[in-house]
Design brief:
Layout: E1 2-5, E2 8-12, E3 18-24, E4 26-27, E5 35-38, E6 47-50, E7 56-60, E8 63-66, E9 73-78, E10 94-98, E11 104-107, E12 110-113, E13 120-123, E14 129-133, E15 136-140, E16 146-152
Antiparallel strand pairs: 1-2, 2-3, 4-5, 5-6, 6-7, 8-9, 9-10, 11-12, 13-14, 14-15, 15-16
Length: 161
């Protein structure tokens, strides 16, 4: 059951014992042993995914919405204003994550899992992977090996004529 104390939400078991202390500004419901919570109220909420013990699996202030998990996956939707420096970001862009909070990258018929430090990605025309971490952009190859670290304000590709 969910309970609220001092404006914060948590969980108790059927005996009334607190199993996850009241520390979240809002909470969803558990599905596939994962629950979406709001860590702090602001114009861009910090959303997180927790496990049944209350441990944070993944969190990001980039996420505008995280769906419930189904078949080991959830859909995340992004705040577009965060990615205003990326000319490849599309309005209402969504990605899938697994129950460990890793983004699922789809390259052709292959699916790969990004390190949890990356909270957004985009496949480039050259099948490279532009990634985003802590406010900066970087670049990975198809095998998820780092080409550029996430230390750049933006990345633009110029075509040879």
């Amino acid at each position: 059951w969910t309970v609220r104390k001092n404006e914060l939400w948590g969980f108790v078991d059927h005996s009334g014992n607190e199993v996850i202390r009241c520390r979240f500004y809002d909470i969803g419901r558990f599905n596939e042993d994962r629950c979406v919570v709001i860590l702090r109220p602001s114009s861009s909420f910090a959303l997180a995914i927790i496990d049944p013990s209350g441990d944070i699996i993944q969190m990001s202030s980039n996420f505008e919405h995280i769906s419930d998990f189904s078949n080991g996956r959830a859909v995340v939707k992004y705040y577009p204003e965060i990615f205003r420096d990326s000319y490849r970001f599309l309005e209402s862009e969504e990605r899938e994550i697994n129950t460990n909070g890793q983004l699922i990258v789809k390259i052709g018929n292959e699916e790969k899992l990004l390190n949890k430090k990356y909270t957004w990605y985009q496949i480039t025309e050259d099948n490279l992977i532009e990634v985003y971490s802590e406010g900066k952009y970087g670049l990975l190859d198809r095998d998820l090996k780092q080409i550029l670290p996430c230390t750049h304000d933006t990345i633009r590709f110029l075509k040879n004529k």
